[in-house]
Amino acid sequence: MRRILLVLFVFCAVIVNAQIKVCDKAVGGIDFPLCTDGKVSNIFVSDADYEVVKRVANIFADDICLVTGKKGKVTTSKSVKGKNIVIIGTLGRNAVIDDFVQKGLINVESIKNGWEQYVVKVLDKPQANIDRALVIAGCDRRGTAYGVFAISEAMGVSPLYWWSDIPVKRSRSLFVQTSEYISKAPSVKYRGLFINDEGWGITPWAKKTYDPELGDIGPKTYAKVCELILRMKGNMLSPAMHPGSGAFNKYPENKIVADNYAIVMTSAHCEPLLFNNVTEWDKKTMGDWNYMTNKGMINKVLDKRISENGPYENFYTLAMRGIHDSGLIGVPKDKEVSLIEEVLGDQRDILAKHINKPIDSIPQLFMPYKEVLDIYEKGLKVPEDVTLVWPDDNFGYIKRLSNSEERKRKGGAGVYYHISYCGAPHDYLWINTTPNTLIFEEMRKAYDTGADRYWLLNVGDIKPGELALKFFFDMAWNVDYFNFENSYDFNTNYLTSIFGEKYRDDLKDILDTYFLLGFQHKPESMGWGYLWNNYQHMERVIDTDFSLINYSEAEDRMNEYDRISDKSEKIWKSLPVELKAPFYELVHYQVKGAALMNKKMLTAQKNRWYARQNRAATNLYADKTKLFHDSLDYYTKEYNTMLNGKWNHMITVSPGWKGKYQNMPPIEKYHPKHGEDMQIFIPGKDCTLGLGAANVLPTVNPFVEKKLFVELYNRGDKAFSWEATTDMPWVKLSKKTGTTLLQERIDISVDWAKVPTGDNLVAEIEFKTKNKVEKVILPVFNPQTPTVAEIKGLYVEDNGCVSINAGKFHRKQEANGVKVRTVMGLGYENECVQLGEATQETQSMWNTHKVSQAQYDFYSFNGGNVVAYIYALPLFPIDPKHDTRYGVMVDDGLVHWVTVSSKEYSGEWHRNVFRNSAIATVKMHVGKPGKHTFKLICADPGMIIQKVVLDFGGMKQSYLGPKVTMVE
Question: I want to staple 713 with a disulfide (CB 3.0 to 4.6 A). Which of 408, 743, 784, 889 is the partner?
Fold first, then answer.
C-alpha cells in the first residue's frame, strides 16, 4: 500500500490555481482513462469547430504520447463512439456537446455567456455507443483550448516543455480524477507578451537556427510563440518590430498562424493600427513620417493595413509618435494635444470603415508612453471606449494609474510592463533579475485601480525570461490567488516541481540570493556607465560604487555570488541528464552569468586599486579578471551549443549596441620593485591616499559581530617573513608568523569573556619583518552598561551608525484600515516594510499619533544631531492627485515628511532606477544617549521602505550603506 501511495504521489499532478487532477493509477469511480494498459482513448472534435480547437486536439494527442508513448486517434467524423472517448468542443460548434447540454448532462449556465471559460466533466454512458466520455467544453474558442491545456499541464506537460526543455515524466497509464471542473473567467481580459529588442536573441536564433530557410522571424517561429502563449493561458501577442526583424505583416501567413492559435494581435506604443513604421515606412517613396505635413500618406498605409488585418482578432493601438521609439517630430508644443486628438479620430474612422462593428465594441488602446504621458496630462481627450494602457518607467515602476474619474471609463485600463529594456540609464536585456514580488506589487496595485482589460509584458527574447513570463501570465489569469508570500516563493515552488523536492531548500537559497543581488544592482550595469545620453554616447566602464574599503561590501557581494554559483553547479552535476538542460536554462546560466559578470567587474576594479597601491598582486588580479571574462564566454557558448545547438544564437552577453560591460574591462599591470616591501591594509582606510594617520581598525564592541582583519601585502618581488604580536591577551590572531610573496590576510577576533569593561579600550598589534615594523590599533568599546542581554533584539549604534532593516520592525501601529506589513523578496536586505496599500486614502499629516506606522527601537551611545538616510522603492504616485510621502520621527519629536518619486528621465530618476532605491536624507535630533524609537509614518499608503541608517558621524562611503546593526 505504501508503495502504491508513493507511485501516486510521484505521478499525480495538479495544475496551479485549479482542481484538475491526473494520476497514473485509478483510485475511484470518477476516473477517466486517457491511457490504460497501453490503450489510448480517442479524441473527437467537430469539423465545424474553430481551427484552434482542432489544432489543440491534435496537440493534446501529442501531449498524451509524450507521457505514455501512445497516441490516440483524433477524429472529426459525425459518428462518435467508443468505450472511452475525449470530446473537445466549443458551445454552439460541437453538436455532440450541445446535445449533452440540452439533455442536462452538462451544466454550462455559468460559462455560456462567459469569456475564455470551460467545463471539464466525466460522463458515464452519455449515449448508447459511448461507455464513458471526458468532455472539455469551452464557451469560446480559447476557453476550449485552455480546458485542453489545463489537462495537459495536470498530466505533467509543462507550458514550457519545449521552450525550456522540461522533460515529461513517463507513465503507462493516465487517469483524469476530476468528475467536474468549471473554470472562472480570467482576471485580466487580454494577457500578452511583447517580443522586443530581439536583434541579439530570438531573431538571430530564428534566422540561423530555427528557420534558416526563411532567414527571419516568421510563421514557423510565431507558431511556437503562439502555442506557448496559449499554453500559458495568455491570449495576445505584440510581435517583434525592430529593424533587424522582418515586420510581422511582411509575411501574410503570420496573421493566419496567430488566428489559427486564437491569438489576439496587438502592437507597440509606436505602431499605430498594427503598422510597423520602422521597416514598413519608406521615406524615399512615402515622405516624412510627419502627421502635420504628410497625414494623407500615413492614413493611406494605415487604411491598407486594416483592410488586410481587420477580419482577424486584434487589439488596436491608437498612436502617433516618431519613427521607432522616438517622439513627435515637427509639432509645436501648443499643437500636440489637438494633433493627437485628430490622430485618434482619424484612426477610429479607419477602423469603422473596415470593421463591421460599432466603433465602441472594437478593442482599442491608447498608451501614454514616455513623452505622450505629458501630452495626455495637458488635457488630451481619449474616447471613452478606448482602453488606457499605463506604462511603467521601463524599469518596473508604473508611472501612473487611473484616477477616480478614469476608473469610470467604458474602455477600462491596462498596463505595459518591462522585465527587459534597451534605453537610459542602462540597457538590461541579457538575463532576468526583476523579482516576482515587485511585479506582484505593481500589477496588483494596477489591477486594484481598474487595470483589468489589458496586460502586456515586454519579455525581450522570451528566453531567458521564462520564469517571469509564467508568473505574469499566471497572475493575469487569477490575480486573487497571488499575494506577496506566494509570489516570493513562486519560482522555488515551480522549479521544485520540475527538479525534485530534495532541491527545494537549495533552490530557494539560490533564487532568493540571485534576485537580491540583482535587485541591488543589475549585472548588465556593473560597468557603471550611463547610456543613451544621446545616440552617439557609448558606455564608459568605470569603478562601481561597491566599496573595496568599507563594510566588506564588494568582497561580500562576490562571496555571495560564489556561494550560490557553487551550489548551482553542485545541483547541475547531480541531476540526471534529462534535467540538465532545463536547469541550465532556467537557473544555472543566469546564476553563473551574473556571478561572473560581477566578479569580472569587481576584480578589475580591485586590480586598478591594487595598481595604485603598487601591490605585487596587481597582475594576479588582472589574470583573474581575464579568467572570469573568458569563463562567461564559455558558459554562454555552452548555452548555445547544448542540445545539439537547439538554442544557438539565442543568448549573447552583449545585447544592445551602446553597452561595454560585455567587453574585457580596463586592467593595469605593475612591475614589482626588486626586493621585499611589506605594507598593510586595514578595513576602512584607503591606502591609496598617501601617508595618513595611524593604522586604526574599526571599533569593535560586543553588540554587533564584525569581521576584522589585517591584510599584509608586498610591493616587491621577494617574499617577506613576518611575525605578529599583541599587547592584550584577549586579542586573537588567526596567524602569528608567515612568509608572504603577494598578500595574506590575518583575521582578528576578541575573546569577550576576557575583555575588561571600558568605553575606550585599546589593543595594539605589531607586525614585524627584518627591516620594518607596522603597528595597528584596535579600539574596543565594552561598556559596563548596557549589557548585550539588556539590549538584545534592539538596533544599536556601531561605529557611529545605526543601520535598520525596515522589514524587521519591533512593533506596528495600524489605523484607518491601513496595514503595516513585512514584504519578503524586495529591497537591499531582501525584506521591506509596506505602509498600507496604494489604493487607500491619504492619511492625516497633522495627527501622526493616530496613523499607521512602523516602530524600531534602537540604542545610541551618543546624542545630538544625526542624519537619517531612508532607502525606499522609487515608486510613482498612483495618480496626479496623490503623492509618495511618508514621515520619519525619533521618539515624539518633529515629524519630517519625505517624497519618494521623481520625474522620469531626471538625474534623480536615473540614479533611483540604477540602484532600485530612492534615498532620502533627513537631519534629525536624538535627545541623549540611551534607548529611542525611530518611526516610519504612513502618509500616502503603499510606500515601501527598504532600510534606514542613522548617521551619528561615522558613516563611510559605500553603495548599500552599513550592515544592519541589530543585537542578536
Answer: 743
Burial of 880 from C-beta contacts in 10 A (0-12 / 13-18 / 19+):
exposed
Nearest Cα neighbor of 45 from 118, 148, 157 is 148
Residue 505 lies in a domain: yes
User: Are 751 and 881 contained in the same domain?
Assistant: no
Residue 7 in this model has a pLDDT that exceeds 60: no
Q: Could you tell me the pLDDT band of residue 8, with boundaries at 50, 70 and 90?
A: very low
CA distances from 194 to 269, 420, 763 (A): 11, 10, 62
pTM to 2 decimals?
0.96
Q: Is 704 exposed, middle or buried (0-12, 13-18, 19+ CB in 10 A)?
A: buried
Location of C-alpha cell 499605463: 390
DSSP track, 349-390: HHHHHHS-S-GGGS-EEE---THHHHHHHTT----TTSEEEE
Closest Cα partner for 127 from 88, 77, 81? 81
The Cα–Cα gap between 217 and 260 comes to: 18
Q: H-helix or E-strand containing 477?
A: helix 466-477
Chain centroid offset of residue 191 CA = 17
Residue 154: count of CB within 10 angstroms of its CB: 25
Buried residues in 108-131 as b, exposed as e (16+ CB within 10 A): beebeebebbbbbbbbeebeeebe
Q: Among residues 686, 557, 553, 561, which one has the least CA distance to residue 963?
A: 553
Q: How does strand 236-238 pair with strand 190-195?
A: parallel
Question: Which residue range(s) make up the domain with 689?
Answer: 678-782
Backbone angles phi, psi at 654, to 5 degrees: -120, 50
Q: State yes or no: pLDDT of 478 exceeds 70.
A: yes
- Residue where a domain terminates, one of 481, 509, 533: 481
Nine cell digits for residue 452: 483589468
Same domain, 310 and 217: yes
Burial degree of 626 (CB within 10 A; 0-12, 13-18, 19+): middle
> What is the pLDDT at residue 15?
45
| The three grid cell numbers given for residue 485, joined into one nine-digit string | 508570500
User: What is the chain's mean pLDDT, rounded?
Assistant: 95
The whole-angstrom separation of Cα 632 and Cα 653 is 8
Q: Which of 669, 688, 704 is the last residue of a domain?
A: 669
Looking at residue 693, its pLDDT comes to 66
Within-domain flag for 959: no
Q: Are residues 847 and 740 in the same domain?
A: no
